[in-house]
Amino acid sequence: MDGTFVANGAESAEMPCHHASVTTAARLGAGAGIPSPLRVLLVDGQELLSRGLRLLLDQEHDIEVVGEAGDGRAAERVVAERLPDVVLLRRGHASRAVGEVCRRLKSLLPTTRIVLLTEGAKLSAAEFAEVAVSTGADGQVPRDSPVDDVAAVIRAVANRDAA
């Protein structure tokens, strides 16, 4: 396996590539003026945990997990193909430095927001500010948080609120 798990039930390498200028505002529901669900990419080298988080997030009415990637390179492919609004990136995954991964993802799709899944307790505001400056991340959530908290952070970051 090359680090790509699945994107909507299929290997992401088989998904069509779309132009990366689509924005959340451009994806409104058919005539109803209701935004489409927030499109989320999960990046975590532990497939079992990633798939478990996917199952939980898929129960949220306004969140759609559009793919899973096991490392930064696979995440780049899925970002280019699936155009997520938010990327949940496990801080400390071993494939590349988190800052480099964040910068590359944002260079591919500048409108995407990145939430770091942190190990242990949530970083203080000062600690996260330092991490955000060095990585380009937009929010954080401890990896052991309840799914409601993870979903709330996804929504806040997608709305450009501090998280």
UniProtKB/TrEMBL annotation:
InterPro entries assigned to the protein according to its UniProt record, in alphabetical order: CheY-like_superfamily (IPR011006), EvgA-like (IPR051015), Sig_transdc_resp-reg_receiver (IPR001789)
Domain Response regulatory stretches: 39-158
Sections of the chain in a coiled coil: none
Domain of life: Bacteria
GO biological process: phosphorelay signal transduction system
Protein name as it appears in the record: Two-component system, NarL family, response regulator
